[in-house]
Design brief:
two-stranded antiparallel ribbon, alpha+beta
């Protein structure tokens, strides 16, 4: 979506007013994800201050992203193709005349 949207989100009890080029629903979804991750980590480490918690969550998310990017090229698309092929074969079996 082009243009700037103003979106207010809440992450870990703090409200943030953001400008984004994405649809507000997407920004809200991302904020819920970050909020959930911060709460999960806070449950495990309740005495960590908010700034450190935010950095730890960012590092965890970055690690997940890097691991996904480091996968062999085509791995995900190949897995998807195999799943689709399997589903098509199952449909062929079900729809085949008796």
């Amino acid at each position: 979506m082009s243009g700037d949207n103003r979106v207010t989100v809440e992450i870990f009890g703090r409200r943030f007013e953001l400008r984004a080029s994405e649809a507000s629903e997407r920004v809200e979804e991302l904020a819920r994800f970050v909020d959930q991750r911060m709460h999960q980590l806070a449950d495990v480490s309740p005495h960590v201050d908010t700034a450190k918690l935010a950095v730890l969550v960012a590092l965890n998310i970055a690690d997940e992203l890097f691991r996904e990017l480091e996968k062999e090229p085509g791995t995900r698309s190949e897995q998807f193709r195999q799943r689709v092929d399997g589903l098509v074969a199952r449909l062929d079996e079900v729809l085949a005349p008796s």
